[in-house]
Every structure is written in structure tokens, then in C-alpha cells.
Amino acid sequence: MFKKFILTIACSLILPAIKAQTGSLPVIFIETQNHQPITSKTVYVPGEYFIVDESNPDNNLGSAENPMALEIRGRGHSSWKGIKKPYKIKLGDKAPLLGMNKHKHWALLKFYEPTVVGMRLGEIMGMDWTPSTRPVEVVLNGDYIGLYLLTETNRIGKNRLNIYEQPNWNEDESSIPYGWLVEVDNYYEPNSISISENNKWNMRITYHSPDSLSPAQKAWLQNEFEDINNAIYDIDKENSHWEQMIDVDAISRYFIIQEVLDNSDGFHGSFYLHKDWTDDARWVAGPLWDLSCNQRQKTDYTFKMTTSYGFTPHWIGELIKDEDFCRAVREVWNEFYPYEILAWMEYIDEHLLLCGEAYEQDKIRWNYTNQETLEERVERLKSSLLANIEWFNNHLPVNSCVGDIVKEIANVEYINLTGTRSSEPWNGINIKVTTYDDGSVTTSKIIIKQ
User: In this structure, are 289 and 212 located in the same domain?
Assistant: First the structure.
């Protein structure tokens, strides 16, 4: 099937640049059986693939003469409606694509800078597992279709979310409470349940693993999320017991990620939760998926700010009234701020700017009218992220957050080892002294690398 690609590659040397991959990134060549178009999000089309990475030949996989087997279908909801389509890929054999862990299941997502940035933040924030991404160019049936993100998909497995996975149609009541991967979703799916979150709206939970439930499994899942929801909405925040069912540390990390990114989709769409089989098994927030960044002036917590669509964030409006949740957020934040910021910004430059040439070719291929270069977009994104970080640092939820009360920071000083004070941190070890508008003071040790 792929022998004709030899001719395609040769012809690309004389075709206009609009038709050809740049080769500045790894290129995935895919050919479906009989050039069958990919029109379904449920039915896979058989095909073959090979990968060429001119910068790192160790990543090469297969060849035009000896391609590898795969199946491919469409994926996504609103993204599937665009002219440039995202795809789900299932390889014939497990493979470690572009240095990522060996697996059969992958996604080709439209290139989007906040996805790369947000997934890295998930790793920095210590989520249980976060999908890896690699920028690639894609040639489908001889047609250059532009710049994509090759992405690990959210699945339970040794080289993905490494937890116990219970089987489909399980009737064993002792094991039903363990080994789940679910998603709080915006869209109706056949594999979903719905609960009444409050007297205004419902909450939809899509179960991904197991994905075919016995009556006992479905009844347990329905009761479980109703119990969790009731605990979260308990008026008595001091004695509520939601923490016995949800890992407070993990959901605090998830909250911070959504706030730093200013991701309006957090807590209502692509909000994944998983549950392992341990002695003290609780639902854990993550893995991350479908991240965005509004790049607007942040004036409040993201879940409170208006958006152009009508989805309502679930749970977070109640969680932030709970003292234990607020305390956990502050503790996690002190791990991140300011130690990890510089390295994160450097990662963004290193992993996004190399896509500049392919980004321009992608604009030509899809006739995009945006005149910004990728470098300009990256700088604008970084400025937004840094502004979000500073806003959040100045508006950390505190013990008195019941009723959405938030202390305002009145002053911040840094003291070095000689006892000298400054409004800016010194190189080396600092004691950060934060004074709030109510007169209270907190201190923390930070280290600024030279």
C-alpha cells in the first residue's frame, strides 16, 4: 500500500510548499485501505503508517516499503465539526511512538499550545499520571494535513494510568468499588449516568473503564456519586465527610491547574476521576485532558468568571467553602510557587518554538487568516499564565473562605540569610513574609536559583 508514498515523497520536492511537510518535526505517514475517507467517530478504518524523524532517526518506525498496521477513526465533539479533524489511532502492535511509552492507543489532536503547556503543568503539579504529547506533521493518504499533537490517551494500563482495572459486567460486590476511570462530561454518551447535583442542574458522569456495566456496577456507580454529591453539598462544612470519598490533595492540585491556565472547562467537561484498589481507596482527580487558556484579564476564580457558553462547573463552588480544601490548596501552592515557574516557562519555549515552521505551513494548508507567528502566540500565552499565577498567589483561598471570603494581601517582603529585607526575592534562600489586610502574617521558605 505504501509503495506509492515513495512517488508522493518524490513529487513533494517539486510541488508548491502549500502541499509539503516541512520535515522540521517528525512526520507520520498514514494511508487507509483503498484511501477510504475517515468519516466516523465510532467505526475504525484499517490502514498502515510509518514515522520519519529527520532530527532523531532513532524515532523512525516502519518505512514506505514496510509500513506498520493501524486503525483510525474520528474523535472529539466540537473539534470534530472543524475542517481540520482530530483522530483516534489504534496500532496493530504496541509501539513506543517518538519516545513515549509503548502502547496501542493514541490520539492525533489539533496543535494547541495550551495543551502542551497544561500537560506539562500536570506533571509539575504531581498528578498521578498525565498524558505525554509530541508535535508532529501528518500526511494522510498522500495529503499533507498539517501540524498535530500526537498524544497518549487516558486509559488504565501499565504504561498509562497504572491502577487496578475491574472487568466489564462485574457482579462481585467486593470488587465493584475499585478500578474505575470516569469523566464528568458535558455531552450525553451511551455509557453514562446522571445525578441531580442541586435544584438547578444535573451532573453527567461517563464511565470509560469499565465501559460496559452490569446492573450491580451501574447501581453502585449511581449511588456512589449521589453520596459524594450529598457530602460536598453538606451545609456543615466543618463536619462534612466528602474527604473520605475524594482525595483532597489531588483535587486541590487539579483546581490550581485550572486556575493557573484559566481553563473554563475545568470541573464540567473532560473532568476525569479515577479510583484504584487500595486499603483507603478514594476518587482521585485526573488524568488531565482537553485543556485551554482564556488569555484574558483574571478578575476572579475561573469557575466564577463568565464564558461564552452555558456549562456550569460542578462541585468547586462548594469545595472552596470547605476549610480543609482551602488549606490543601495553599499547601500545594507553596510547593509550586515560585520554585517551578522559571523551569516551566523554559519548557514552554523549548517545546513550542521548534514548531514554528510547521505552524506556518499548517496555516497555509488550512487557509487560516491569523497573522501571528507562533513565537508571538507563545509570548502572549506566557504573559497570560504569569499574570494568572500572580493573581492566584494574591487570592489564595484561606481558612475563612466559608461564604467565599478571601483575604487580600497587603504586603510581601523577602528576607535573605543576612536579615536584609527587599520587595523582590534574593538569589539563594529567602524567607517570604506575607502580610494580609486583616493584619495576619504567614511565612514560607523559598529558594531562587542563580
Answer: yes
The number of beta carbons lying within 10 Å of the beta carbon of residue 399 is 13
C-alpha distance from residue 392 to each of 10, 273, 328, 333, 399 (Å):
53, 24, 15, 9, 16
3-state secondary structure of 55: coil
- Same domain for 90 and 230, yes or no, is no
Residue 324 forms part of a structural domain: yes
Q: What is the DSSP string of 380-406?
A: HHHHHHHHHHHHHHTT---TT-TTS--
Record the cell numbers describing residue 135, joined without a space: 508535535
pLDDT (tens digit per residue) in 335-367: 999 889 999 999 999 999 999 999 999 999 999
What range does the domain containing 439 cover? 407-450
Please state, in angstroms and rounded to a whole number, the distance separating the CA atoms of residues 289 and 270.
6
Percent of the chain with pLDDT over 70: 91
Same domain, 331 and 444: no
pLDDT at 429: 73
For residues 269-291, b (16+ Cβ closer than 10 Å) or e, as one string? bbbbbbbbeeeebbbbbbbbbbb
Task: Provide the pairing of β-strand 428-436 with 409-415.
Answer: antiparallel
pTM here is: 0.85
Report the number of distinct structural domains present in the chain. Answer: 3
Distances (CA, A) of 71 to 4, 49, 173, 352: 19, 10, 36, 29
Predicted confidence band of residue 164 (pLDDT cuts 50, 70, 90): very high
Q: Is the pLDDT of residue 377 over 50?
A: yes
CB atoms within 10 A of CB 380: 14
**Which three cell numbers mark 121?**
503543568
Domain for residue 398, yes or no? no
**What are the strands of the beta sheet with 421-422, ordered from one edge?**
421-422, 409-415, 428-436, 441-448
| End-to-end Cα, the chain, rounded Å | 56
User: Of 280, 310, 336, which marks where a domain is finished?
Assistant: 336
What 3-state DSSP class applies to 353?
helix
Q: Strands, E, within 65-179: which ranges? A: 68-74, 87-95, 103-110, 133-140, 143-152
Q: Is 4 helix (H, G, I), strand (E, B) or coil?
A: helix
Q: Give the pLDDT band of residue 412 (cuts 50, 70, 90).
A: confident
Instruction: Reduce the DSSP state of residue 376 to 3 states and report it.
Output: helix
Q: 106-128 pLDDT, tens per residue?
A: 999 999 999 999 999 999 999 99
